[in-house]
């Protein structure tokens, strides 16, 4: 199969997204824009307590309220849907009880749905909820991760322990951790729980038809085919009778690829009532019911040899996942990803990690953008800086010496990460040039001379992207790692694609269009891509793990090449030429000399409308499909390095990021505009992680940052300029050579900011290792330092 | 996030509004710009039986100057106040403070009187009114009152406003010549509720502070002028960082700070103290 070349010139070009105008001018069709005839509206009575027993309930008044169609508890749903339970062979013996769409008798997190009211409007449904009288018995709640394994309270009544899963990961010569070490640096980290606040909240419109026995579901979801499968199974409906439609989606970040109890309950309600039921999570319920992420406590030790080489890592990690392991992908994935990414940019000899995955009376945690990598990166890069500081060495020099060199790959590191085709040294060189060009060193010197607290921090990263079928396949979790693209050449010479890759606002349909344009040989304007509808799109993975370009893009390339071959077969027959002498350029079949012979429009019209004119034996196949599974490498590693310049106000402890730099390698760049904005958005989320975002809980386990006035997402006004550059090392296992890009910004941004803060505070003898970095903590530390 | 049921009334004159307010009293909420009330309604934290929408009442909006007083109608939107040349030239403190009030979309709808009536301790305008010795004009069926700002703000969301009263306008005496005014605040993100903010006026002779007026927002349950602090600043050179630093570190002696798990009392005082030093340093730089 031929590889994309400079010829064609659509791949790699900064084409603006074709649907930007429609979306920014309000022409989008998001979930809340979907309204079906006879539609009803859902609202939930959710547990106000982190842990309680439901002793009794009186909903008579709610049922009698005009406009109320149904007041449903688990008892009412049990006939039409089943509970679900996270089981994964990737975490054998994982403890996670069955989870019910509506809690039957015990609630184990604040925000857990208990009663579903379906009414003529959301307002009436909310009125009815206030009329439901529940007798609760509050039970002791397990909230703080520090003590979750030690307290007497249990997350679920009757459990013997709050431990969900324990594992140990070791590799290499463990003696290296002690014997050869001239220096050991150690730190205990605390990572705040946070969540991915999508611009569009979760939502679903479920429409059951008693006439067809079919379920039509509109959802704001990243993986329509996954949702379709689980809906079919949980509601016992043949898969063929379930259609999931995801129109425009306002962001996913991993939040929208799980099975949520409230969404299943809404589907069950539609089945019971035989009417469409709509549910859109408002911000308040979103913040307590969307998956959370990142809550962990880690003690990490890095051993360094006398000549400044990393000998290895010794890790003790506790990860809080809430009261269930999220279905179906499992909350253990984040813990494992945190661990596996420790040390990833570097060469080292030994690795040992003890991992405890712990249940808590909080909402489930799950796979949020860059899954675990920011934790692994913050741990590694903090220790690396600490070692460099201890050795009196430049932090970049220490990194350069320890980074895995091109000639040392492929290499499987002691943590089990397979490293290949990475460009650490090229990236660090490029980053240093960018930082030098911005005269950062002299800015630092001048401002420090004026008594200002400023710092520069670096963070290198490796991200495991574009998960292959081994990832969930070995775990026996039915998540597709394949993608499928179907292409049709139409009568105006246009190419229409239907793809299994989901558009979440990241622009992947634009990216696929560019790939298809070059693969077939048509103009970009002649390519249309549709996706997100199981009734139209073939089965495939959707959007997660930065897979769109790496897997979806490759699928599109191969489908495009297939279509081109069919076109050339027909053209050759029509022109009485050999297909090998022909090529398609800009929608026209050309001969070896580049002379235009026949347009795709004419070929399509002949094949579709005048097939009898074609030579005997030519049955044109102008619709082709390709389903692609990568047959090597469970993940495609990508790499990069970031830098952050911050200022800390001595009087208030507030941290201001002044500038941020990223050099990253996502292989072949299909559209630099799309990649850069993915990086930029990812960096912003990483800065939010470092400085602002946290799900705070009080001592009783109540979430106290349950609105967007308290849960602080980063805003444009606070964000620094983000300078982005690329190194392109194409992935050799595909023709396109693209790797994942969507999460690279998030992987290392928080680590770079945290390192910059510690660089700024180092002269005061202060070290901070918990996120988000709170100005109150900085002021306390500064006061403490002044007192010393 | 849909409000509980309420009866919506929209009077078209002040007397009609006052009658409705008299009739429904404690059961009623006044709807002006709605920038605080609407979210509270949607969260069902506020659940008035009656919502009296006063936006259509003529004569409650606009800015006028006369008799040494700037008069701001209660329904005047923040963006109008911020864009007013009268405010910019004659009440620069208010002009500067409004830059810190939330975001443009909120300033387009939020009203001056609404901000005072709500009395959020973190709000900027109550602190400005206190600092400028403003008077809040109120109206009810029993008549009109003029309440000094220093007596109007009583605590967190607590004012001297009776249940049957509304704010009709705010009268701010024109400050005498020779004063310099500054407003600044600290918040986690631009437009957020302030951790603390400062409204400060100083009258300088050369570089020596002869008189000052200081009020904080966000620091205490309600804004007030801090007379002992004003006293301490008298006679201090505005550029004397050491003396001012000394005064700032003793701020805790004069205040009863708000405290929460997120922002403990010590932190609010640190921030207020930093703000005092910051605005005085800026004043000093400006006269050099």
Class by alpha and beta content of chain B: alpha+beta
Instruction: Summarize the biggest pleated sheet of chain A.
Output: 7 strands, mixed
How many domains, in number, for the residues of chain A? Answer: 3
Global Rg of chain B? 19 Å
Unreliable spans of chain A: none
What is the H/E order of chain B? EHEHEEEHHHHHHEEHEEEEEEHHH
Structure description:
The complex is a heterodimer of chains A (about 800) and B (about 290). Chain A has about 800 residues and is an alpha+beta fold. Chain A has three domains: about 20-25 and about 480-630, Aldehyde Oxidoreductase, domain 4, CATH 3.30.365.10; about 35-140 and about 200-250 and about 255-290, Alpha-Beta Complex (Aldehyde Oxidoreductase, domain 3); about 290-470 and about 630-785, Aldehyde Oxidoreductase, domain 4 (2-Layer Sandwich). Helix content of chain A is about 30%, strand content about 25%. Chain A has a seven-stranded mixed β-sheet, with helices on both faces. A six-stranded mixed β-sheet of chain A has the order 7-17-16-15-8-31. In chain A, helix 14 (about 510-520) runs parallel beside helix 15. The longest helix of chain A is centred in the last third of the chain and has 28 residues, at about 550-575. Chain A starts with 19 loop residues before the first helix and ends with a helix. The mean pLDDT of chain A is about 95. With about 290 residues, chain B is an alpha+beta fold. Chain B folds into three domains: about 5-55, 2-Layer Sandwich (Uridine Diphospho-n-acetylenolpyruvylglucosamine Reductase, domain 2), CATH 3.30.43; about 65-175, 2-Layer Sandwich (Uridine Diphospho-n-acetylenolpyruvylglucosamine Reductase, domain 3); about 180-285, 2-Layer Sandwich (Enolase-like, domain 1), CATH 3.30.390.50. In chain B, the strands form four sheets. A five-stranded antiparallel β-sheet of chain B has the order 4-5-10-6-7. In chain B, strand 6 and strand 7 (about 145-150) form a beta hairpin. In chain B, helix 5 (about 90-100) packs antiparallel against helix 8 and helix 11 packs antiparallel against helix 12 (about 265-285). The longest helix of chain B has 23 residues, at about 265-285. The radius of gyration of chain B is 19 Å and the shape is globular. The termini of chain B are far apart. In chain B, about 45% of the residues are buried. The interface between A and B is medium-sized, with 30 and 28 residues.
